[in-house]
Amino acid sequence: MPEYGRRLIPQILDSIAAANPHRVLYSVAAFSDDCYDFHHITAKDLAQAVDKTAWWLRSSLGDASNIRPLAYIGPHDLCHILLTYASVKAGCTALFLSPKNAVEGALAVLSAADCHIWVQPSQQQPTSLIEQCLEKRPMRVLEMPTLAELFDAESTEPFPYEKSFQDVARQPFCILHTSGTTGVPKPVPWSHGLVGTMDAVRLLPPVEGDGGLQPWTSLWHEGDTLYSSFPMSHGAGIIMDIIMPSLYGLRCVLGPSDVLPSLNLVEKLATHARIDIWSMVPCLVDELVDSPDTLARLEPSKFICASGGPVSPDVACKINDVIRILNLTGTTEGLFIGNLVVNRQDWQWFSFHPYSGFEFKEVETGVFEHWVHRNEHWPFFQGIFHTFPDKQSINLKDLYVKHPTKQNHWAFKGRSDDVVVLSNGYKISPLQVESYVSTHPAINGALVIGTGKRQAGLLIELKEPTQRGIELLDSIWNTIEKANEISAKQDRLLRNYIAFAESSKPFVRTDKGTVKRHATLLLYADFIERFYDSRDRATETMDMDTTSRESIENSVRQVLARSVPAILEASVDTDLFSLGLDSLLVIEAVSIIKNCMGIDKLEPSHIYANPTLAKFSRELFQLVLALKQSSDTNLLEPGTNQRESHLKRLIDQQKARWSQKLNPFDCAQPNQYAGLVMYLPLREGTDPAQVFAWLQLGLQRAMNVFPALGGQIMPAAASEIGYKEGDLRVVIPPQAATNDTVRQLKFKDLSRTLPPFSVLRSKSFSPSTVCEDMIQPCDTFPAYPTDIVAAQANFVDGGCILVTNIHHCCFDGCGVIVALKVWAESCRFIAGDPSANCSWLDPECFNHSLPGIVHELEGNKKQVHEVDPGTWAFVGFLPPEPEVDGHLGATPAQNDPSYHPNPLPSPPVWDKKTTWPPLPDPAGRALTTTTFLITSEKLRNLQQAISASLNKGICLSLSDIVQAFFWRHAIRARYRVARIQGHTFTSEEQSVLELPINIRPYFSTLIPSTYTGNMLTLNRAAMAVEKLCSPETSVAEVACLLRETAARITVQVVHDTFTLLESLPSYDPQGRFSYADMGLDGMHAMISNMMLFQPREISFGDAFFANGGSPEVLQPLIERGKDCFRFLAILPTRSDGGIELMLGTLPEELDMLVNDDEFTQYATLLAAGQT
Asked: What region holds the Carrier domain (predicted)?
C-alpha cells in the first residue's frame, strides 16, 4: 500500500511513467471556430519534459547547496507544471507571483523570499509589472525554452530524484504568497510536508465527533477528469492543476492559454471534455445561475468544488439543485484541513474532522472565531503547523455561526479583521450584505464602510459606472432592501448612506477576483471621509425660491456651486459631472435641497437622470408642483390619495382571483391529487380542537395570500375561443365569499383508533400502523369540478397526522411544497410572527400563462414537424398517428437523420394502457405498502462499492445510485416471481423506469423559483428485463444508464416537449395518455425521488407544535394506487442520514426482496403496510 502522506510528487510522476507510460495526465484544449481539439499529455511525455526542464535549470544555474527561488509570471499553461516539478528536481523552487500585484507588493514578496532569479516565458514580452520589478530589483533573468522544445524530449536522460520524504519534508515544493488583502502580500513556502497532508486526508479514520461524514477527498476518484478556473499563481490553481492530479490520479484539463475562464469556455468544456469535477472561482459560480443552458450541461458532472471565497447562498442553492456544490475552506498557509463532506442540502455549512484540532470561540452572541490547536496528529492532518512550526495555537480570524440543529456544522460569516466597528461600539460583519448586494447584475462589488462612524454605509462598484439611471438605482436599492431583510436590525443600511465608486478607481482585487478590502479602503480613504462629511452637512438649510422654474434654477446653481464653483459660470445645458460633480457631492446637494424644499421623494437618481442644470431644475419644478397639488387636494378632499391607493390594492386582489386557463404542461398531467402526509408532534397539553381552529385560520390567510389555494379546477367551456377537448380552467371565489370555516380542511379524531404519536414514532411512522383510507379526506381521482386543495388534520395523542391533497393539474411537486410553505408560514403569522408574511412568494407564482409566454419570448417556438420525434419519450401523451391527426404525426422530414444531426433515441416500448383513471387489477390483487431502510453507514458502503466498480472517468451521484439500486431490485423481485409462475422473457422485453424531473433550471431564468404550475418532464430509462435482473449486471451499470438518459434532458428538449404538448388536438387522456407503471403485471415502475428535500423547510411554528412546527416525517400517499400502479418512492433523507425506500409489493414479491442477499446487504425491512 502506498505511504500516503509521505509520497513525493516528482517520484509519483516517475513511477507512473514507468508503469503506465501512455496514461493521459493532462489534456490541453485547442479551440478555434467550430473546431474543438485537445492535445493529450501522457505520463511519459510529462516525465521526459520535466527531466529536460530540470537539466536546463541545472545547466543554467549549476548545482548549489541551498534551494533557490525562481520567480515566474506566465500564461496559464504547462510551463507552470514543468517549472514546479523541474525546480524540485534541480534543487530550486518555483515562486509564482500574481500578475495582479502592485509593483510594491511583488517587490515585497521577492525581497522576503530572497529571490534573485527571474524565469521569463520564451517569446513573450515582459509585462509592465515585470519590467518595473526588474528595474527596481536587479535579478538574473532566464528565458525558459518553449513548450514545443521542452516536450521534444525523447532522447533526454532521466534526471534522478532519489531523496526521501524525511530528507525534504521541510523543504519547499513551491512558493506562493498571500493575497495582500490586509496589507502587502507575503511569501508562503509550501513544504513537501505540507503537501503531504493533502495526500494523507484519505487516512482520516472514522472517530467520535465526525458525524459519520467522510473526508472531502472521498468524492475524488482515480480517473476523474478535473478542470480548474483558478490561475496557477493562486493556491487553489496549484492544488487543482498539480497536487490533486498527482496524488489522486486525476486527468487535468487546461483551457487554451490565451482564453480567460468564462461561462463560454465552461460550456465548451462541458460539451467536449466530459468534466467530472469543476473547480471554480466564486464569481464564476455566481454567474452560472444566469445561464441555465450552461448550468444544464454541468448536470452530468459529479460536483463543483467551490473554494477561494464565499459564493452567494441564494445563487449556489439554485445551482446545487442541478449539480452538487462541494464547499471547501482552507488557508494558503495550511491548505484544506479536516474538511468533511456534508449532506448535499447542507452545502453552505462546513464540518471538520476532530483531528483538525479546530476550536470555535464565541466572541459575541452567536458568532465564533476559528482557532486551530496543534495535536499529536499534526504531521499528517494539520498542515498549517508545517508552515508555522513554532506555533502551538493559531487564530485564523475567520468568523462562523453554528448550525441551529446539527452538531459540528459551521457557516462562514466573515473575518474578524473585516468587521466594521461603529463609533457606538457596535460590530457589523459585512460579508452577508456584500455578497447579497453583489448578486445584482449591474454591480461588480460592494464594501460596507463606516469604521469609527455613527452609521454604516455601502460603497458600490458598478460594472458600467456611467449607467446611473433612475430605474437602475431603484433596482439596486430594491436589492439592498432585500439584504436588509436578512440582516440584523442594527446592520441595516440607509438609502442616503449608499455611495458609488469612482470609475477611475476600480476596487483592488486578488487573482481569484475577490476584493482586497484593506487596499481598497486605503484607496478610498479620502473619498470615505468626504462621504461622511457630506452626511454631516446634509441638515444644512438655505433659502430657496420655488415660485418658478427660473428661481429654482438659480437656487440650485447656488447650492451646487458651494462645492463645484465652476457651476456658477457654466451653461445650464452643460453636463454637471463634467464640471466636477461626483457621487458624494450629489448626495450632499440632494440632502440640502430636500431639506430646504420639503420634497421627500427627491433622490440622487433625479440628478443622474437629469445631469444638466436645466434638466434637473425642470424635474424639481415638476416635483414642487406635484407637492403643492397634493397639499391642495388633501386640504379640499381629505383621503383622496388613500382611496386611490386602496382602489389599486383592490384591483390587484381581484386580478389574483381571475379565472385562468391551464397551459399544455398542466393539461399533460392526469386528473389526480398529489397527496402527502406529514407527521407533526404536538406540544404537551395542546388541545386538538384549538390546533385545528388555528390551522383553519392559517389556511384561510394562505388563501388570501395565495387565492388559488381556495379555487376549483373544472373543464373549460367548449364555447371558448381555441377550445380543445380536455382543456381545464381554474376558478377562484371572490374574497367576500371566504368564510371563517374553510371547507377544504377537515377534522378527524383518531386518538381512540390509532396509537399515540410516540408509538408511531417508535415504529418509524410505517404504513403498517396507519391505513391511508383512514386519514384520507377525498378521492384520489375526483370528478370535475373539484377543489384544488383537500386536507385533513387527523389527531392522535401527542400528534397530528396532516394529510394534504393538491390537484396535480395545477401544481407539480415543487409547487405543492410552495403551497405548504405558504400555509405553514400563514399559521406562524396568525400566531404573532409578523416576519412570516410570505414576501418571498412571487406575484406570478400561479400565472399559468407564463411558460407559454417565456417559450415564445426566448425564441423557442417552432413547428411540431421540426421537433425530434424522440422527444415523445419525455411526455405522458402518446404521439398522434399521421393518418388520424394528419400533420401532427412524425413527418418524413422528422425521421430523416440529416434533419436532426444528433437524434434522440426512439421512445421505449411497453404495453400501453390508455384508460384514465387506470382500471383496478382484473384479478382483484392489491399491493402492500412496504418500507425498507438504508442506514447512513450502509448508504456509504453502497456508494463506495459502486464507485469502486466504475471505469475510470465515470462519475455517479448518490441519487443515481439509489435510484438504480431501487429499480433493479424492485423489478428483480417481480421478475423472479414471474419466472416461477412460468413466464418467459424475450431479449426484446424491456423494463421502463419513469423519473419525473423538475425542468425549471432548464426552461428559463424568467420562471420564478416559486412558480407552482407544472414544470415536469419524464426521464424514461429502459433496459432489457433479462439484463436488468441478471446477476452479471451491476447496479453501477444500471446507474450509468440513468445518468446517460438524464444527460439527454436539455434546454431544447424541455422546450420541444412544450411544443409537442401545445400541438395536441386534445388533452382528453382516454386513449391518448399512458404511463409505463400503470397496471400490476408489467416490469415497469415510476420513482418519485424526494431524498434531497428536507421536511424542516416546512414550519408551522411552535405555537402548538413541537419540533419547531416541522414534520418529523413527510411521506407520499401511495396506497391509493395499490391496485393499478407500480409506484416507488424514495423518501426525504432522515436526520440520521439514512434513506427509506417505499413501494407496493405482492406477498410473494416481498418474500423475494427479503431473501435477495444483494438487496438486504444494504436495505433492511422496516415494515409491510396494510392492503
From this structure: 547-624
